[in-house]
Amino acid sequence: MAEETARYWTHPALPGVDLLTARYIRHSFGRHTHDTYVIAAITEGVEEFHHRGSTERAGAGSVALVNPDVVHTGHSGAPDGWSYRVLYPEAGLVAAVAEEIGTPGRGLPGFTEVVIPDARLAGMVAEIHRAAERDDGLAADTLLRLTVARLLRAHAGPAPTGPGPATGRRTVRQARDILETRLAEPPTLEELAAAVGTRPFPLLRAFRDAHGLPPHTWLNQQRVRRARLLLDAGVPPAHAAAEVGFVDQAHLTRHFRRIVGVPPGAYRRERGRG
């Protein structure tokens, strides 16, 4: 059986875009979101993932799409796992392309399909990776914009608005702000609810409605995001773990890999900090 491999990296010709090249067999991604879009070209095998209450299957020659802040998972849908090449473009980049090509609609665009069986499109995503790997920045940037434009024209519309009444959204936003400022020493759920003027169960329901995750899971995701910024700045993984509130480096590694797909040490090395 082939070994699992994963590389999470960036290229200077593609600012605002992370890239993941991976083969996974036993690895699984926990429930998480990205603040970027996800454009994943499956090159071998089958990836299976939960998305908005459904189980999706993406086989070789298809492209899986996830909008920012949408909860999803990821695991093997076949005994031999799956291989894929993933683009994580920032929302601002996708919005800029939409504006340049005159895509109708106001606000941030959203993909309207989750799995697209399109070998040509999957090949375009893979070719962006290959161009970056051979350091052909002009080709990588050109292909990226052509790919995003094609997706926007054929498979996108206005992004959906968040659920729930304005009062509930405001309460969740206040709770989220508290958690973001207290990553290392978060309050209990009861303390958090009291701080925003509600009770624990109403806050828990509103938080899950808004983010698809309970507060503690959302908090760990924010810890991983903050840890990525620290690793990008050259902070060693053990120090990053302590600064964002994980008990030790092992806890950071477990959560980091279930969200990003690689351990923090490998992530840091690709940033030239190892």
Task: Describe the protein in words.
The chain is an alpha+beta fold and 274 residues long. It has 2 domains: 5-158, Sandwich (Jelly Rolls), CATH 2.60.120.280; 166-270, Arc Repressor Mutant, subunit A (Orthogonal Bundle). It contains 10 helices and 11 strands. It has helices spanning 91-101, 119-133, 137-155, 166-181, 189-195, 200-211, 215-232, 237-244, 249-260, 264-270; strands at residues 5-9, 17-24, 29-32, 38-51, 54-59, 62-66, 72-76, 82-89, 109-111, 115-117, 156-158. The strands form 2 sheets. Strands 1, 2, 3, 4, 5, 6, 7, 8 and 10 form a 9-stranded antiparallel β-sheet that branches. Strands 9-11 form a two-stranded antiparallel ribbon. Strand 1 and strand 2 (17-24) form a beta hairpin. Helix 2 (119-133) runs antiparallel to helix 3 (137-155). The protein starts with a strand and ends with a helix. The model has no long low-confidence stretch (mean pLDDT 93). GO terms for molecular function: DNA-binding transcription factor activity; sequence-specific DNA binding. Pfam families: AraC_binding, HTH_18. Keywords: DNA-binding, Transcription, Transcription regulation.
